[in-house]
Structures are given as C-alpha cells and as structure tokens.
Amino acid sequence: MLILMAVNATEEQIAEACRRVEELGYRPHPLPGATRTAIGITGNNGAVEADVLSQLPGVDEVIAVSKPYKLASRDVKREDTIVRFPNSEATIGGAELAIMAGPCGVESRDQLFRAAEAVANSGARFLRGGAFKPRTSPYAFQGLGEEGLELLAAAREAFGLLVVTEAVDHISLALIDQYADMIQIGARNMQNFAMLKLAGQTRKPVLLKRGMSATLDELLMAAEYVMSEGNYNVVLCERGIRTFADHTRNTLDVGIIPSAKRLTHLPIIVDPSHAAGKRDNVVPLARAGVAAGADGLIVEVHCDPDRALSDGAQSLYPAQFDAMMQNMRGIASLVGRTMVAPRTVRSGATR
Ligand code: PEP
Ligand code: MN
What we know:
34% helix; eight-stranded parallel β-sheet; 351 residues; single chain; four-stranded antiparallel β-sheet
C-alpha cells in the first residue's frame, strides 16, 4: 500500500499519516518526491485499512501496489533516486556518471595508494577495493581484513575519494559501516537475507551486485530487503551472469539496464571487469553499459596486475583506465550524462 500525500500537504500532516500507519501496526516509509511525498507501507499482509488512511488531512489517495517489491518500485516513487554522500559532491543516479575504480583487493599500502592516486587523477570519485574477499578457494587470498579497511580510510583522506568495499558477513559489515562510505554486497551474497537486513539497518548507501543467476525481480526483492529496514540508498549493479557462453568470465546483461529503469527508481551501475574476466574486453563492455543508460561504472584497476593477488587478468592498467575515461566522456555526452573533470590530486587533497 502507498499513501500519496497532496502536493500542499504539511510536514505535520505527513508525520500524522506516518503515526497512524504505525498505530495500525505497520511501518511507514516517507519518500519525498519532486512535488509531493509518498508514504510506502510495509509489514501488512493484506489490504491495509485504506479507508481510515484516505480520510486523513493532507492525504490525496491510498493505492495498492501490486508489485512484490514496494519501496524499490517506480509505482511508489516516480523520480529517480539520487544517492548523495556527506561532505562530497559525488552523486549516483543524477546527471553525473558515478565512477568507482581501484584494485580487486587491498593488498598493501603501496599497491592501494598507487592505484588510488591513478584513478583519482583520471576522474574517479570512488575508490573500490576489497578488504574481505569472497573467494572460490579457501586457500586463495582472503583479504587483509580490518587492516585493509584502515588502508582504504587512509587512501580516502590522501586522495579525496569515497570508499566502497565489500561486506561478506555480519562482522565485516559492522566494520565497513565504521570505515567506508558505501557498503558493497557481492554477487555471492545477493540473497543473504540476514545480511541484507543488517545493511538496511545502517545508514550507509549500499551497492548491491546482481547474483550470478538472479533475475531482475530477485535483484529488486534483495534491494527491497535493504529498504524495508529504512535504508533507501541502494544502488544496483549488473556484473555479468552465468550463461553457456564461455568466451568471457560472465555474460554482461546490458538489457537489464533499461528493464530496471522501467521498474525501479534506484540507480544501476555496471561492473564490466567481472563480466569480462579479461582486460581487453573491459572497455568495450563499459562503453556498452553507459550507452545503455547505466548510472556509472565500477572498474578494477591495478598498477601491477601480473602480480595481483586476485583478478589480475581483468584489471586495467592505469593508462588503460585513463583512456577509458576519455572515451567515456564522448559517450556520456551522447546520452546526456556528465563526468567530473580529470584532476591532479596530491596527498592531503579534500573531496
Ligand atoms: C568484486 O567486486 O571484487 C567482487 C567479488 O564482485 P562480485 O561480487 O560481482 O563477484
Ligand atoms: Mn574482483
């Protein structure tokens, strides 16, 4: 169910409607729009007492939402969600393409700082890098853990970047909430519902990667888990899915971008690195993602990829990333998007 407040509804009327929803035993989710506020209602199993609510002052209409995902649906919020960050001009879902780049995993201070400096200079606003790595083999590099988070936080201060890094369980999630600007939930955990709820209880934006065999509906239901806990800043990420095609690591499903845009107001970005699996395929897939309407990219970059402890084969050299960014400026302008100007960042620069 959804309450649509009138265009001229007052703050008090919105608060009163929320209070009445709570009184009925449900959870209200006020979602301010460009012209009016909608209040999503969750926790009800059947028809909520629509009559009572529709009579309240300032309420325009009470409507049923037929989709299984409510808060993620365009039916509940027509305008695109724009995710913002405290003390930063970075946005995700607005006109500017959100560019996240950095190594697959944080390996050392030197490795991270070299990559961070390079991607910042090429115009990325976000630094990626896993401190906790979900690996197929238990014997593969598992990440530096909290030490990796400390390095990410240091790189953020040094280069004026926002940090996005992956949580693999409730312990890493709590740590990442303290250290990072954005919590990544990886493909392997897209349906870890307990973790999705915990991410929903934080107030950090969540980057939710599509599971390897997840449908768009399942991805949106996963986003709904986060939002149902009151965290509305969810960014979806297409990172390639498993298909019979074995010429690339995964198959980039470009078609999910326009489909997602129709069904949800949440931003969607593309990870061409995990889709490609090899670096020569990364840039063409990045181009395709942005051309199809993605709100940004998350790309793996490493200064010495042959020695990378994970995903070296798909990591771009900094010069390739820089060329990709130049390339992307042309595509961005064709699809009505902007990109931040490249800059020269020195240690101590601010965001
Ligand atoms: C990653 O971003 O390094 C990663 C593990 O991605 P995914 O969850 O998409 O495999
Ligand atoms: Mn990786």
